[in-house]
Design goal:
The complex is a heterodimer. By secondary structure, chain A is mostly helical. Chain A has helices at about 1-15, 20-55, 60-70, 75-85, 100-135, 140-150, 155-170, 170-180, 190-200, 200-234. Chain A has one domain (about 1-230): MetI-like fold (Orthogonal Bundle). Chain A contains ten helices and no strands. Chain B is an alpha/beta fold. Helix content of chain B is about 35%, strand content about 25%. In chain B, strands 6-7-8-3-9-10 form a six-stranded mixed sheet, with helices on both faces. In chain B, strands 2-1-4-5 form a four-stranded antiparallel sheet. In chain B, a hairpin with a 2-residue loop joins strand 9 (about 205-210) and strand 10. In chain B, helix 3 packs parallel to helix 5 (about 140-150), helix 4 packs across helix 5 (about 140-150) and helix 5 (about 140-150) runs parallel beside helix 6 (about 170-185). Classes of the chains: A mainly alpha, B alpha/beta.
């Protein structure tokens, strides 16, 4: 208990002082996870909408795969990206292993199925309602996708925030492909893992508190936006 | 009036629509020559909505053919607008709902602004232009879908039970808009199960039951004495099944 209160005191001190080491780690975390989510969303939103609207052979399989990939284990994703980017791997010449870019790629792979699968469901539901109207006014596939993505914006933003929540909180993938290198690829979750094993609990707990605060903020946003969206759909 | 209308006559020839082995529409043939307001009348489940949607090209025919003037159904759709029983409104403001169809038709932004204003004004919705469409009352929502149709300046307006979910005041408002569509020289075809509404609006009546067309007649003649015995019972207020 004494150890916990000591750690807590150190953590608060680091937070209040805006410790440069802590700040660096927090900012890199945000940069990596936000980049990963934005990159994933740019491709996952149109893809989810496309799968929702079009019929093609194997569509059912794609839907099942998309849903299943939502629960990809981060360490496995990390391992596969590691093998691809390592010196002897097919993308070894890019020299991306142990860089923030590699971490963005890994988190993007984790987040992509979440956004794509939730987009597919949102667009599919909305399309049930809009289908006859859209066909009546002669909308093409691209115009339908644009209409449905815009009108599903509240639920889609929720999906994107859920993706961000997964990215910022995962440790397995970024520690493998990033290597947890000081001043280079050290993010909040990897620092917590390292500092805890070193016994420097203050730093670990300080970062833990920030992570929890971010989680609370994201979920507050989800509930607020979701509530607004529900009202609008009545 | 007929000669100016490129969409007429509407020729429906031997049309059937079968879903899972059940005929929703069965061998229906008719020709609509004149502009004005044609009502598809009949009890619920008669196939009125289905026939309307087949004429608008929303569903594929199982057999038969439909032509609007010289155009086939898909080409004709571009000169038509359809209003559904439950208003389909986008999760946007009233004005943006009108803007959506204008953008799809490729109107310039200057034209769009003008047409949006005119259409909402025409439907008496100018003061709620910026309200979220789905917060409007039922009558306002259906008026908005008709204003959106008006904005497209279609030659044909198709309406599927547009007032089925509305109270009398809202129904009157929507009927006024429908009437002024017809008075502007557009062809209007409306499905309804409401005899009183048919009496108020129709120039011509097509009476359907169980997916079959039982009678086509000028409204006045139909209302004073239909030749089909089932239609006679229907307009006498009996519950026809």
């Amino acid at each position: 208990m004494n150890e916990f209160s000591n750690a807590f005191r150190t953590a608060l001190h680091l937070l209040v002082e805006m410790d440069p080491g802590l700040l660096e780690v927090v900012l890199l975390s945000l940069r990596v996870s936000l980049s990963a989510v934005i990159l994933a969303a740019v491709f996952a939103l149109p893809l989810g909408a496309f799968v929702a609207l079009t019929q093609f052979p194997g569509r059912r399989g794609v839907v099942i795969l998309m849903n299943a990939m939502m629960s990809l284990p981060p360490v496995v994703v990390g391992l596969v990206i590691y093998l691809l980017l390592s010196r002897t791997g097919p993308l070894g010449t890019t020299g991306l292993l142990f860089t923030p870019t590699a971490m963005v790629i890994a988190q993007c792979v984790l987040v992509f199925p979440i956004i794509a699968a939730l987009t597919r469901q949102t667009v599919f539901d909305l399309h049930e309602e809009y289908d006859e109207y859209l066909r009546s006014v002669g909308a093409g596939t691209r115009q339908k996708i644009a209409t449905l993505l815009w009108d599903g914006r509240a639920r889609l933003l929720t999906a994107i925030l859920a993706g961000f929540g997964r990215a910022i909180a995962e440790v397995g993938a970024v520690i493998i492909v990033g290597g947890n290198i000081l001043h280079s690829t050290r993010v909040m979750t990897t620092t917590i893992a390292l500092e805890t094993s070193k016994g420097d609990l203050g730093m670990a707990l300080g970062l833990g508190i920030i992570l929890v605060l971010i989680a609370v903020a994201v979920n507050t946003a989800v509930v607020t936006i979701g509530g607004g969206a529900n009202q609008r759909t009545v | 009036m007929q000669s100016q209308h490129h969409m007429l006559p509407l020729v429906v020839n031997g049309v059937s629509y079968v879903v899972n082995g059940k005929a929703i529409i069965e061998d229906v043939s008719f020709t609509i020559e004149d502009a004005g307001l044609t009502v598809l009348l009949g009890p619920n489940g008669a196939g009125k909505s289905s026939l309307l949607k087949l004429c608008h090209g929303l569903w594929p025919l199982s057999s038969g053919s439909i032509r609007w003037g010289d155009a086939d159904v898909q080409d004709a759709k571009q000169k038509q607008a359809m209003v559904f029983q439950r208003p389909v409104l986008l999760r946007r403001s009233a004005a943006e709902n009108v803007d959506h169809v204008l953008k799809l038709r490729g109107a310039s932004s200057a034209d769009r602004a003008r047409v949006i204003e005119e259409s909402l004004e025409w439907a008496g919705l100018a003061d709620i232009a910026d309200m979220p469409a789905r917060k409007l009352s039922g009558g306002e929502q259906q008026s908005l879908t008709i204003a959106r149709a008006w904005a497209l300046n279609p030659e044909v307006l198709l309406l599927d039970e547009p007032t089925a979910n509305l109270d009398p005041a809202a129904t009157r408002r929507v009927e006024d808009l429908i009437r002024s569509f017809a008075e502007a020289g557009k062809k209007v075809i409306m499905a309804t199960h409401n005899i009183a509404q048919a009496r108020r609006l129709a120039d011509e009546v097509l009476f359907l039951n169980h997916g079959r067309l039982l009678e086509q007649a000028p409204a006045e003649q139909f209302m004073s004495g239909p030749s089909d015995p089932l239609a006679a019972r229907f307009i006498a207020g009996e519950l026809v099944e």
